[in-house]
Amino acid sequence: SPVSGGTCPMNASALPTVHPGGEFGFVLAGNRLLCTFELATGAYVSSLDLGLDMSAALEAQPVAPMTLSANGRVLALVAAGSARFYDVSSEGVVTERSSVSNVLSVAVRMNDDGRLAVVALDTDTVEIATIDTTTGAAFDVQHLVAGETPIEVRYDPDRRVAEVLTTTGLVFLRHKSNG
């Protein structure tokens, strides 16, 4: 437990995510805690309580993909219809950054520093949007064709292209000059 300094039990809804530096991992515990643990020992480092609403939502829909920016400073968690972004300190402590509502349970992809993320929005039509993870503001929104459901989203910062694998094919979206 967090009090005794023990280990964090893993939750099957979100597979553990490893920090690029290799010293920390992140896992959901009990559908409620976002825990940081030491990779070498499995020892608890810190946790953030996601609240009862998130816990209940994860019980109802137990899919919660997590991703980290390449520099390891921003963590994204998609669960309960929202994408939540967290700052990650050099000690592995996570703090809230921003969130976006109406998000499909598809892993978020970020640019290297985590400032921008590509998410699948569940609006009247399915949309792929670039999100400023500092503010949660969406820009560069693209509608998908009716019937196209995103399965996976990738982001290529060198080409400034979002690649979206859908149920009907592969869609490439090039970013505008602002991001």
Outline the structure in words.
5% of the residues lie in helices and 47% in strands. The model has no long low-confidence stretch (mean pLDDT 82). Strands 1-2-3-4 form a 4-stranded antiparallel β-sheet, with no helix packed on it. The protein has a 4-stranded antiparallel β-sheet with strand order 5-6-7-8. It is mainly β.
Short characterization:
This protein is mainly beta and 179 residues long.
**Envelope shape:** globular
Overall pLDDT confidence:
82
What is the C-alpha radius of gyration, as a whole number of Å? 16 Å
- Determine the N-to-C terminus distance: 42 Å
Kindly state the percentage of residues in helix: under 10%
